[in-house]
Design brief:
GO terms for molecular function: 2-dehydropantoate 2-reductase activity; NADP binding. Catalyzes the NADPH-dependent reduction of ketopantoate into pantoic acid. The chain has 2 domains: 190 residues, 3-Layer(aba) Sandwich (Rossmann fold); 126 residues, N-(1-d-carboxylethyl)-l-norvaline Dehydrogenase, domain 2, CATH 1.10.1040.10. With 326 residues, the protein is an alpha/beta fold. α1 links the parallel β1 and β2. Helix content is 44%, strand content 17%. The strands form 2 sheets. An 8-stranded mixed beta sheet has the order 5-2-1-6-7-8-11-12, with helices on both faces. The protein has a 4-stranded mixed beta sheet with strand order 4-3-10-9, covered by helices on one side. It has 12 helices and 12 strands. It binds NADPH dihydro-nicotinamide-adenine-dinucleotide phosphate and ketopantoate (KPL). NADPH dihydro-nicotinamide-adenine-dinucleotide phosphate binds next to α1, β2, α2 and β9.
């Protein structure tokens, strides 16, 4: 089984570590950067020294090693559009795309560009951060929820040919997927993964923006119960208006559990703001905000946080442009 992983970031490195015995190929921006090291929960470290290929400069010969069965995509939401423009040569007819991101919309974007390929969408509660240059630390081993995108989206939006023409050998597909997923220590396969994605969207929709604008650890949200409650209330109203099936108390509890379980963590958005990087505001609050707008729903808390993060993102992207031209 041939696996490609796009990106050598935190989650890409975690997956390279999980799939190390399969010698994945890393599709990266720059092959000259050193191999990354990942440190596990028990402090053992592993050098992720696998074959690398520049994603923007596809192979011209010896193509066979680069016909992937699975291509795992673990870039940030705002990096996906540029990646898609570079990805075509790496996606063979039989290549399954597996996208694991926070926020929503990425899988839909992939489906629009690769309508004939089987696409799986996932979300993870694994937690990994850069502890030093080229080194990642696993800080929590979570769960990977994954499922076929063609069961989640409307067939008018995405119906890959092999499903439409019933040419998929489901036995083979199941056994390939099984071989992939058994490498993760805690994986849940869903026939319809949308519940898992909307649950994670609600978790990220509450924790990430609040911790980002307040610059606090996740656990410090305990000191802001009114802000947490107001945001939950609006997200639940958005889900209700959009006919997303959920149980209010259970979802509220799920959010509280993640706040507790990751209390010592700085959320990804909090760190993005701190280090003046772009955040995933558009695919988290932007997505929720669009869902609200589509139903003419008034969501002042979401809107206010979304606008604040938008301004921060705008200042961070102009600062990085200025640095690039220095
Ligand atoms: N880290 C975590 O603990 C968790 C992360 N997630 C989610 O997983 C996703 C990935 O996050 P994370 O791994 O933390 O992010 P990172 O920024 O650490 O990793 C993204 C990587 O992708 C690379 N990349 C971007 N565009 C391209 C491209 N066109 N070609 C090749 N490589 C590219 C980036 O390179 P460069 O840096 O040079 O731009 C970077 O190395 C996000 O949606 C995040 O919210 C979910 C749960 C937990
Ligand atoms: C689960 C949580 C909120 C952990 O911090 C996360 O996914 C993130 O930081 O993006």
């Amino acid at each position: 089984m041939k696996i490609g992983i796009v990106g050598q970031g935190a989650i890409g490195s975690l997956f390279a570590y999980y799939f190390k015995t399969l010698s994945p190929v890393l599709l990266v921006k720059n092959i000259d950067v050193p191999a990354r090291t990942i440190i596990g929960l028990t402090r053992e470290s592993t050098l992720l020294d696998f074959a690398k290929q520049p994603v923007h400069n596809p192979f011209t010969n010896n193509a066979e090693p680069y016909i992937f069965d699975f291509l795992l995509i673990t870039v940030k939401g705002y990096q996906l559009a540029e990646l898609i423009s570079q990805l075509r040569p790496w996606v063979a007819r039989q290549t399954r795309l597996v996208i694991v991101q926070n926020g929503m919309g990425g899988a839909q974007m992939l489906a629009a560009h690769f309508p004939q390929n089987l696409i799986y969408a996932g979300t993870t509660t694994d937690a990994v951060y850069a502890s030093a240059t080229d080194t990642f630390q696993i800080s929590a081993q979570g769960r990977l929820d994954i499922g076929p995108l063609w069961n989640m989206l409307d067939p008018t939006q995405y119906a890959p040919k092999p499903c439409k023409h019933k040419t998929v050998n489901w036995q083979h597909e199941k056994s390939l997927l099984d071989s992939l997923l058994r490498f993760h220590p805690f994986v849940m396969y869903h026939q319809d993964v949308s519940d898992a994605l909307y649950t994670k969207l609600a978790i990220n929709g509450v924790i990430n923006p609040l911790t980002a604008v307040l610059q606090i650890k996740n656990g410090q949200l305990r000191q802001y119960p009114e802000k947490v409650a107001a945001l939950k209330k609006e997200i639940f109203a958005v889900y209700k208006a959009n006919d997303i099936t959920f149980f209010e108390q259970a979802l509220s509890h799920a959010i509280d559990i993640v706040i507790e379980a990751t209390s010592e963590n700085w959320s990804s958005m909090c760190q993005d703001v701190k280090y003046k990087r772009l955040s995933e505001n558009e695919t988290v609050l932007g997505f929720l905000s669009n869902m609200a707008k589509s139903k003419n729903l008034y969501t002042p808390v979401i809107t206010e946080l979304y606008q604040r993060l938008r301004l921060l993102d705008a200042s961070h992207s102009s600062a990085s442009l200025a640095n690039d031209t220095d």
